[in-house]
Request: fold
Amino acid sequence: MTHPFDLTGKIALITGASKGIGAAIAHSLAGQGAYVIVTSRKAEACADVVDAIVKAGGQGEALACHIGELSAMESTVKDIVARHGRIDILVNNAAANPYFGPIDQTPMDAFDKTVEVNIRGYFYMTNLVGQSMKKTGGSIINIASINGVIPGDFQGVYSITKSAVIAMTKAHAKEWARHNIRVNCLLPGLTRTKFAKAITDNPEIMKQVMPHIPMKRAAEPEEMTGQVLYWASDASAYTTGCIANVDGGYLLV
Ligand SMILES: NC(=O)c1ccc[n+]([C@@H]2O[C@H](COP(=O)([O-])OP(=O)(O)OC[C@H]3O[C@@H](n4cnc5c(N)ncnc54)[C@H](OP(=O)(O)O)[C@@H]3O)[C@@H](O)[C@H]2O)c1
Reply:
């Protein structure tokens, strides 16, 4: 008998999966039987992730896909659907955070880049994959951030884009429930990846951050995967438009 988290035969596309949370998600979905398509701007780095997945007994492939580029997303989705017939699971995970500083000094090119990747990239990728999912049903998982609820210090634009991802999740979820497409959103707390290195590798900053995290530690990327696996699988068949924080209690304080 298969268990409700089983993903055997499912085709999963994950953006920004060459490292960090995206790579951990790829490993987790592959571990439950999904065929994972590991993408980021760097195909070689994604191929290393796929090699490790295959060594662990999973299946998948690596593709380059820059989610700031509309044509790259179009050709990637077209190629996957042509070869695999469908996409069952989409994880929008790749994000940009190029500026750290006072909100009123935000360079407009940093504003544009953050919006382009974090809002337009998620939006367009979802709409492209949705065209295929409308025929088959599917699960879309957006990776936003706790900063979409409580803005991060000196991370104004980034926080604004993550709030937009929360709103986007609800908009797609409501409109597409009738197509059996479920759309849910993860809010990671502070997680040890390259993205958060400037915080996690700085003892002074960590001393300021810890009083705000009841569990008194940063997460490991693997700790973000359980919630994603739940939404990717039939275990959450009646769940859509859900926004869940996995943050050691940060949003409680
Ligand atoms: N770490 C945290 O504390 C934390 C907290 C809250 C939310 N998050 C969210 O979690 C997600 C993953 O972050 P992470 O911490 O795992 O970061 P990470 O370790 O820096 O990984 C980011 C991934 O995104 C890819 N990427 C970056 N820009 C891209 C683009 N334009 N197109 C395609 N791929 C791109 C990178 O690969 P390439 O360089 O190979 O393209 C990499 O695979 C993001 O949405 C982030 O906002 C993280």
User: Anything to note?
Assistant: Residues 96 and 113 are 7 Å apart (CA to CA). The chain has a mean pLDDT of 97.
